[in-house]
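Annex B. Sample input.
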Amino acid sequence: MTNGSGIATVSFTGGAYVSTRAYNGTSLATAISNYDYLQFTILPTSGNNLVVNTISLYMGVSGGSMSASLLYSTDASFASYQTAGSVTGFSNTTVAQSSFTSLGINVNNGQTLYVRIYGWNLGSTYYFRTKAVVISGTTWSIPKITLTMGTNFISGLNTYNNTDNPILNDSVHILSGELTEQHQTSTLRLSNEKAHPNSDKARIFPNPVTNGILNVELENGISEQFNLAIFDMSGKTLIKRDYSHLNSLSLDLSAYPTGIYALQIQSSNFIFSDKFILK
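Annex B, continued. Sample output.
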């Protein structure tokens, strides 16, 4: 626990922090400008994030009455802060609990939460006592990701959203992996092997597309129903159509702006993905 320069003395007496000769301002704004505060710090365990839902204060006065406000920040300089709430006109001479709920304060791994109690309207002959600040919230661990590189690894990994939005790099594909919260390690294998077994069974041309028409040729045809989709580089689906029993097809893309796109063909027994440039 630390205190602002406006607090004359702070001692730990009778199981509580006792501060004297302060809190004579008439408003929270005055208390802030006078640095009339006690400060507590909360630091999440390394590797964990924290969401603070409730902060409870245990406060009392030796006589008279006063008001207090709880402010918080993850900025050590307190240049920016939020107000959790205020307790006005309390006069209990024994330490009693006051709670501020539904706060939803996010404290990320490596950050510190600074909690300040600002007081005002307390006569100079009295003193303010606070026993503790109690934090209630939720913590969770941050999953660690371990990358295992294949022997033919080629740098330059592009975006791979998921099987529905395949924005692929021709050289590097994610072959396998899993990621689970609350566990320590996940493994992703990267290599320059083809991600799909049918990559050499189909082709698209011309590439770049200069006349607005993209041709798709299937080496042995697809004798069942299949889905064709085209995505832009943000993963947005632009075209999604169903076909069956085809060896080739042509797509009119003249309505779309120039750029890089991804095409995917998928059936129960066949999957093909590739990128193309539309000029």
